[in-house]
Amino acid sequence: MSGTQDFINQNKDRFLEELLDLLRIPSVSADSRHKADVKRAAEFIQTKLTEAGADRAEIYETKGHPIVYGEKIVGSNVPTVLVYGHYDVQPPDPLDLWDSPPFEPVIKKTDIHPEGAIFARGSCDDKGQMYMHVKAFEAMMAGGELACNIKFIIEGEEEVGSDNLEIFLEEHKEMLANDIVLVSDTGIIANDVPSITVGLRGLSYLEIEVTGPNRDLHSGLYGGAVPNPINVLSEMIASLKDEKKRINIPGFYNDVLELTAEERAAMARAPFSLEAYKKSIGLSDVEGEEGYSTMERASIRPTLDVNGIWGGYTGEGAKTVIASKAYAKISMRLVPHQDPDKITELFQNHFESIAPPSVKVKVTPHHGALPAVTPTDSPAYLAAAKAMKETFGKEPVPFRGGGSIPIVALFEQILDSKTVLMGFGLDSDAIHSPNEHYGLFNYYKGIETIPLFYKYFAEMK
Amino acid sequence: MSGTQDFINQNKDRFLEELLDLLRIPSVSADSRHKADVKRAAEFIQTKLTEAGADRAEIYETKGHPIVYGEKIVGSNVPTVLVYGHYDVQPPDPLDLWDSPPFEPVIKKTDIHPEGAIFARGSCDDKGQMYMHVKAFEAMMAGGELACNIKFIIEGEEEVGSDNLEIFLEEHKEMLANDIVLVSDTGIIANDVPSITVGLRGLSYLEIEVTGPNRDLHSGLYGGAVPNPINVLSEMIASLKDEKKRINIPGFYNDVLELTAEERAAMARAPFSLEAYKKSIGLSDVEGEEGYSTMERASIRPTLDVNGIWGGYTGEGAKTVIASKAYAKISMRLVPHQDPDKITELFQNHFESIAPPSVKVKVTPHHGALPAVTPTDSPAYLAAAKAMKETFGKEPVPFRGGGSIPIVALFEQILDSKTVLMGFGLDSDAIHSPNEHYGLFNYYKGIETIPLFYKYFAEMK
Question: Which of B97, B316, B404 sits opposite A32 (nearest CB)?
Fold first, then answer.
């Protein structure tokens, strides 16, 4: 595909500049104050799809943030690829931990990225990875080498649960019909260890409110005699795991798919250094469910984490107060065969059942995601593997990821479509964290690899 | 004391207006942004003491907030009363729970205060109660009936531990020499049940920082495999109490003064309705240390309460993050014979010892206070009791309070002075809480009662 690859080589700087422009738009879907910014990001994608040569590119309004759809149909005799991505990003806080402003991208060299990485919220998740597809599309059009029909569905609510995507899929099954869904929202093991994600954990996310007294009280006058909602919440959270770090919710593990000894042995062969892992996140020691390795705990096992907690006086100095309310955000990562709705209900019932009579507890489900496993023998997987082998010079490793991409299950249910997760990020890219970044190596490698996927997928179908 | 009481009756409106002016100054000692406001409050007191007729009234700078000292010496043949109070206030947050702005005082009627109460931060604690003494002093001067030498020491750091007061006392023992310290920073049981506080709990206040990974992490990629500092902090907090709600810190109860059956029986005779108590703070049930009554839990028993907790994502919506750090503010109320420094050390050592190896824990002591018990047979107590009996028409009940007034122990240690705690607030005044208020009945009753204390104290000495 010399025409396509030449075009990529000639336009690398512009491809980067355009991404930086996109990263300057603070499209934080969780924060209603950014609604207009989210819209601007959608319009940016629409424009670029049109410029790249789409037959049509439109913005579909939803009850929440808009969805961008674009397509280029080259013929009925070739397969159709549906590219999914999202242009919304996680909230940037805590802001004070960023070395540079989250929405003012800068390029800096790191040990892992000697040729430089783009530091900005969304640089990897998912603006950078999504935009690779827009540029690969432009290159294939310029090179006259687009081997498949291509459809883009780029949403703005992935970081808040994709609530309106489901409705959109239901309403546009026809338009979205495809032979494979292609997504770059996952990672590779390392820049010299290409991999393709073949499994994803699901998610159940809830918010907790514990109410004790009807107002904040003086801890001197009332301390010891009334329920303190922060102490109570802490005790309830602590009771959710046993001493083996297993989750204490009745029925939680009922549907968990246990891997065979062979599967676990295969996983253990993937390159992994516990020392390097601990060093990269500054830990003296790891912890997790007894009887499982760190890689297993982070991929094939379900989890429960408190993502946020707050209550009482959190300002400067000391305030001797007993708060009226305490809050927590809690999420559980789920593995194949666990149903997020069922787990959410189990959690809700259990959490309410363990509340002491002296407090009121409110549990509000935020959103969920089904776990997913993708096949490794499909034409799509084989095409992705062949494309990566060509650009990385190495056969990619099939890998079970720990994160959730709710839409994989949605595409399966509603469109009856399989998904191939050909991502190019790294765990160390700090997505969802301060100083999120994305390697220039990874950005360009993605743009170069994607056209090859189309070529080989067309050949294999 | 007709002259004094007439003057009070003729100047009630002005006495109120002056207090409202003082309450409009946001003298929040814990918040460095309010340093200038705290200074303004000190100058306000200095001015009013001078206007009331003090021989001298001065502002003494300290490393922190200033201390106001004023005095009127009427002769060497009369006893000297040292009035202590504080002009600093607690932080007002959570602001959204106030019905009116905390520093814009309004007068509203309540069930308990049919003649109206002043709603503002500091209205009771302690601007309102402290200012009663300034006005009582003015009235005694106007009436020519000041029966004792009077010295005022009004500080601006009571809500942050009175760190600089100790140094000041050490440096001015001579100037502060007295026969009794008189303080109104406590309450009465009810407006028709006068009482005098004869016991106070001590305090140990600490701040906790738990660090897991060196940065916020994506809970999908890392969840289950790394220590989550919020989960860990919750588990550590939960472990601090056993199922009987006793505090699990080795040695914590060693020095606790246990009351005799007679003393407990005497306490139980004080009027108290558990139903009214629960209703007043909207609780369906109370909780606390097994084997003790609600009144005992709130006064003669030590406690441990989390006053604030925070970590991770606390904004709108959902963020699937594992925080790098989690924080808590924890205070323990102490009873006679418990030493705050020793308890602080016990807590620190225990808390560090129970931290899992995978996290780092930092414990920072904020401030402490010694518990105190005051005698009921001293001339000062008897003078206060006689004064209250005259204005309330009822013998006051000796009462063990739950709060801490660190300076009571300081005056004992450094000035070798006894303190009488003749306060006029109510538990329901919501001090340290939104909508703090102070009854007009209580404000005026205090101003009327204080001059009688001077009269009877002079007679009894």
Answer: B316
Does the domain spanning B202-256+302-367 belong to CATH 3.30.70.360?
yes
> Which residues belong to CATH 3.40.630.10 in chain A?
2-200+371-460
**Residue A190 near residue A277 (C-beta atoms within 8 A):** no
Q: pLDDT for A258-267, tens place per residue? A: 989 988 998 7
Residue with tokens 């707050």: A310
Tens digit of each residue's pLDDT (9 = 90 or more) over A346-394: 999 999 999 999 999 999 998 788 888 777 889 999 999 999 999 999 9
Helices (H), B24-126: 35-52
The answer, yes or no, to whether residue B280 has pLDDT greater than 90, is: no
Is the link from the previous residue into A126 a cis peptide, with omega within 30 of 0? yes
Structural contact between residues B319 and A307, judged by C-beta atoms closer than 8 angstroms = yes
In 3D, which of B426, B409, B431, B417 has the Cα closest to residue B182? Answer: B417
Tell me if A418 sits within 8 A of A410, measured CB to CB.
no
Q: Is B406 on the interface with A (CB under 8 A)?
A: no
What is the C-alpha end-to-end distance of chain A, expressed in Å? 19
Yes or no, beta carbons of A434 and B91 under 8 Å apart: no
pLDDT tens figures, B43-53: 999 999 999 99
DSSP symbols for A423-443:
--B-GGG-TTSTT-EEEHHHH
Over range A118-145, report the average pLDDT.
98
| B358–A220 CB contact, under 8 Å | no
Contact A298 B205 (CB under 8 A): no
pLDDT value of residue A376: 82
User: Using H for helix, E for strand and C for coil, what is the string for A381-392?
Assistant: HHHHHHHHHHHH
Instruction: Provide the pLDDT for residue B442.
Output: 98
Q: What is the pLDDT of residues B368-408, one digit of tens each?
A: 888 887 778 899 999 999 999 999 999 998 887 777 777 88
Residues from chain B contacting residue A367 (CB–CB below 8 Å): 318
CA–CA separation, A155 and A173 (whole Å): 16
Cβ of A404 within 8 Å of Cβ of B93? The answer is no
Calculate what percentage of chain A has a pLDDT beyond 70.
100
- Give residue B415's identity as a one-letter amino acid code: L
CATH 3.30.70.360 maps onto chain B at: 202-256+302-367
| The CATH classification of domain B2-200+371-460, taken from the options 3.40.50.10420, 3.40.630.10, 3.40.720.10, 3.30.70.270 | 3.40.630.10
| CB-based contacts of A431, cutoff 8 Å, min separation 6 | A90, A124, A125, A425, B218, B221
